[in-house]
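Hey team,

Filing this mostly as a record. A colleague (T.K.) asked me to run one chain through the structure pipeline before their review meeting, and I want the input and output archived in the tracker in case anyone asks later how it was produced. No errors, nothing strange. Just documentation.

Input sequence:
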Amino acid sequence: MNVKELVAKMTLKEKAAMCSGADFWHTEAVPRLGIPASMVSDGPHGLRKQADKADHLGLNESIKAVCFPAGCATAASFDRELVTRLGEVIGNECQAEGVSVVLGPALNIKRSPLCGRNFEYYSEDPYLSSQMAGAFIKGVQSKHVGTSPKHFLANNQEHRRMSSSSEVDERTLREIYLAAFEDAVKEQKPWTMMCSYNKINGVYAAENKEYLTHVLRDEWGFDGYVMSDWGAVNDRVPDLEAGLDLEMPSSHGTNDRLIEEAVLNGSLNEAVVDQACERILNIVYRFEENRDRNASFDRDIDHEAARKIAEECVVLLKNQQILPLNSEKKIACIGIYAKEPRYQGGGSSHINSSKITSSWEVLSNSLPHVTYAQGFHDETDQTDRKLLEEAVENAGKADVAVIFAGLPDSFESEGYDRSHMRLPDCQNELINAVLKVQDNVVVVLHNGSPVEMPWIGEVKAVVEAYLGGQAIGGAVADVLTGRVNPSGRLPETFPLKLEDNPSYLFYRGEGNRVEYREGVFVGYRYYNKKRMDALFPFGHGLSYTEFAYSDLKLDKISMKDTEELLVSVEVANIGAVPGKEVVQLYVAPPENGEVIRPMRELRGFEKIYLEPGEKKTVYFKLKKRDFSYWNTSVHDWQAESGEYGVQIGKSSQQIVLEESIFVESTRMIYEKVTFDTIFGDLIDQEPLKELLEPYLSKLKKQFGASGNDADSESSALTAQAGNAMIYYMPLRGLASFTGTKREDLEEFINKINLYLVDWRK
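Output structure:
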């Protein structure tokens, strides 16, 4: 299909209409030219295809479909291949249902545990987020169905999400919030991209040419179309010029007329409209020309796929030799979520599930001595004394009590944020009451974001199920009984309390202005730098077996930043059962570097399967970017020269092996020397030592910094103070302390600048 020729045949009215949805879920058709409508649909963890009563908040019913684990859970798998398989299944479902683009993945950074939509998002870490998103995109698009990563950009809260401005500095945007999208876009080429509602530094995302065009297209090579989040269009003509091709949903002709009028009065170049239409139609026909009309949506088969995926996502947070459960023991299952699991969040991703498997259903059929007590209601946070007493009675008669707790639907959803990080009070009361009659307590959590655990020191085990999809009950039961060895790892930090979170003081912002004052110190980057204890750190997760690490090797001891570093490490299963281990690689910047950076950052991970006694070698490849920070002076990535740590960890706070590598920066960052430049910024630069020596000698005599007068403690202190005085002295100080004339000082500074320019060449 020659799209350019097709667009040339369209009238201005037809082209303007093409830049807006025909309705809630379809692009415009042009029957006279044979251009078909194309359907898009939520969502990131299941198909929410609606027919008549359409909405973007999950209020009206959609077709029966399969709800897979949400982003919070799939990220916990740390398994690219698993997430790719998830994408393949959803892509096949889309082919069967005639859906051209899935509105996902959702990969905004988890800046705070309070964000109501965190359950859809992957992680607090941009590398993990982008890798998981890339794997999902790869899977879906392998079925010739498009994806739409969202929400671009800096959309990290629901509070005032349609009007607030995220005030974020350049370095933080590049290292954290843009980085979450970058690898996924560059490596997997998503067909479309969805912009967010909010402003970025005062400019709406829909109107932000810097990010929609300069970064997304010019830098990253994105070649699909950009669509708005539903209702995110602010000013249609400037939005179109900025790079927003498709407005969703339909504006019912209002904004189409604005586009027409702008072209006719000369304020908008028609070529901009043509380009948007070409981008949209390229995707429409990419799907139409690759339709698999034989694809079938077998909900039972996909339900089993959802269970297999969920098994990989469950995280064992704590285990004091109580799990897996002994099948001969009397087990009390307590909590409504044992029979009615909370497995998905509210809002646009809400799936009309084809079936639901509960843990009670599986456990009651596989264990001989098991009872159930509801324990609490989840539609209200009120203790039901009768239910509480029944639960306590059951727990007292059992050998082990397994409490299924979590966050109710009303606690986390699209549209609003959480107000605290606690479980409902009635659930905490239930757990504490059971602990009074039963020493062997296991807590299973169904939640989309971290929660506080005031009872953590008293329970024997905690299983984090996240929002694991409609088959999560079966997956949890399999983990509890040991049929599945848990292998999930936390994709986010669980702080001890909400106040520990780095964004705590500024999260909601003031009015429509939200300052990201924590900068790059999001999640574990903050907790590690502050050496602050967490309830459970990023990357944490236990297993029913034990893994040992050894023989960490780097293929060189020093390198230029233009080279690659090959890393290998041996991992062995030294336990008694098969299991999967997530090998995490972190890079630690130079301790004496000039730039304030996190203590370590995730730069690689691999999930491997090992039989008892088996050993494997895991390989990683590191490049310049893995050692770099964003330098705002040159607006580019910069690897500072120095000694870096290459670390292998079981979490961000449990490093088990480390080797060092000296990285030499090949890029000299040159800033013009002025009267205000301090000596300390010059004397560490090798080529300047000879030029500076005459002045340094005079200053050392002036301040007694030579330390040669006497071999005494006072002399050493004088020398130390004198050297510090010189180090921090601006060049203009030479006039006062050495009698250098102003004109001579100007000549000296010009000489330094000329010398540096020649040296760089």
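Quick notes for T.K.: The chain has a mean pLDDT of 94. Residues 3-60+83-288 form a domain with the TIM Barrel fold (CATH 3.20.20.300).
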